Each structure stands twice: as C-alpha cells, then as structure tokens.
Amino acid sequence: MNKQQLAAKIWESANQMRSKIEANEYKDYILGFIFYKYLSDQLIPFTKSQGMSPAEIALLSEDDTETANYIKKELGYFIAHDYMNSRFDKHLKTMQQGVDNNAIKQAVNELHKSFATLTQEEQKTANVFLNDVQRGDVRLNDGKTFRQYISEYQTNAKHAQIAQVVNLLGKTGEEEVTAFTQKLNHMLNTEVTEANINEFGRFDEIKNCVDKLKAKTYFEGKKLEGERITAFKVNMKTDKLLQVFIFHGGVDL
User: What is the pLDDT of residues 100-142, one digit of tens each?
Assistant: First the structure.
C-alpha cells in the first residue's frame, strides 16, 4: 500500500466514524478525543517510570488519595486508568454508532471533567491549549506532560504581557529594553505587597525605565480624541498601571 492509498484508507475510516455528524463539527469531537488519549498515554509511562507494574496501574483510583495527589502534583492531573480508557472507548463507540449530537456533546462534557483537579488559572490555560490543539496549532510531543504544556503556556503568556508593557511604555535602547524586561520579570516572580513593592528602590528603578513621552502618548490614546494629559497625571497613571501589572502577576493592556 502506497502513501496515497493509505491516506485514502484513513480518510474512509474517519468518514465511517463521523457517521451522521456534520463534517464541520467533526473536528471539535475527534481532536478532543485524540487529546484525551494523549493524556492517557502520558500517564502510563510516568507511572511505569515510578516503579508501578501494569497490574498496579490498572488498579489506580481516587480512593488511593496519597498516590492520586502525588500524580496530580507531578503531571497536573489524575484520572484512574480504567476510567480514562473506558471514557475514551465510550466516546469512540458513541461516534461510531452514529447517535445524535446531544449524546456526543454529553461525551465531550465527560471528557472535560478530567480537568476538574486543575486550579482555576490552570483550567483557563488548559482551555486555551485545547483550542489551539483543535485548530492544529500545537504539535504534541512524546514525553511532554500536561503540566509542562500548561506551565509553558503560562510562561509564554507572562512573557508576552511583559513585552507589551516594555513596547508601549519603555525606552527603545537595547540595554534599556533588556533592563526593563528583566526588572519586570523579577518583580512578577517575587512575593510583592504594597508594603514592600519599593524595597531597596526596586519599583523606582522600574519607573525609571519608562519613556515619559511614550507613556503620555499611550495614556492620551485611551482618552477622548484631542484630550491632553499633564506630566503629573502621566506619572500618576504610570505608577498605578505598573502596580496593577505587578500585583496581578501580569495583565493584558
């Protein structure tokens, strides 16, 4: 069988699984199932690497809270092995049987329940990640855990937010851009409160990285057309924006 014949065979099989589901909706289901299977595939080698036998893996359940909590900490999620495989099999059978869309949507909802053990912030990031997977914007790598994907997405989002602040408010010199970026990143990774934000003058150093003219342009752009802002108010607004950014661990401007 050559590549073209193989591709045709795969396409035919996918169409049989699709059954009565509209073609433009099919991707929403099958990509979710693929990712669900991916979670299962990551859990098994991890537990084996920790010394578990196949028989022990098959018996994994939430009843063993110590083991379940350890796996959640390391991988970012835990689904009992039997449950995970049975849910995935059920989803595939549901699609193959050509049942109505309500039954399929119910199966998809069951899949998403696997994220209930994540924190609220991680769940938001997981949903962004899943949307990227469904669009085909992510290549899943063998050996990369779900928690690693979530952490990577959160880190990239934070870096993008810092870059946005530096671009909109910072000075343009290469060394100045680097300094502003590093200082903001350090503050976001430090326990900062209103009482210690300017400890050792670190917040003043961040404010000194701001280009006052760029800041004035930015804030005036958010006001009514033609309205001007005084230098005092530019400094006040800059101070407030940077504090909000730091206290919230980064925000989109």
Answer: 556 555 655 555 555 555 667 777 787 787 677 656 677 767 6
> Which amino acid type is present at position 211?
D
Contact 161, 181 (CB under 8 A): no
pLDDT tens column, 214-240 = 999 999 888 655 678 899 999 999 999
Q: How far apart are CA 252 and CA 231, in angstroms?
A: 24
- How many helices (H) and strands (E) would you count in the chain? 12, 0
Dihedral of CA 36/37/42/44: which sign? Answer: positive
Do 251 and 241 contact (CB within 8 A), yes or no?
no
Rounding to the nearest 10 degrees, give the CA dihedral for residues 174, 177, 178, 183: 160
The residue written with tokens 């169409």 in the block is 15
Both structure tokens of 27: 């991707």
Cβ-based neighbours of 147, under 8 Å, separated by 6 or more: 74, 75, 76, 77
How far is the first Cα of the chain from the last one, in angstroms, to the nearest whole number? Answer: 54
Cβ atoms of residues 173 and 67 within 8 Å: no
Tell me, letter by letter, the H, E, C secondary structure of 153-170: HHHHHHHHHHHHHHHHHE
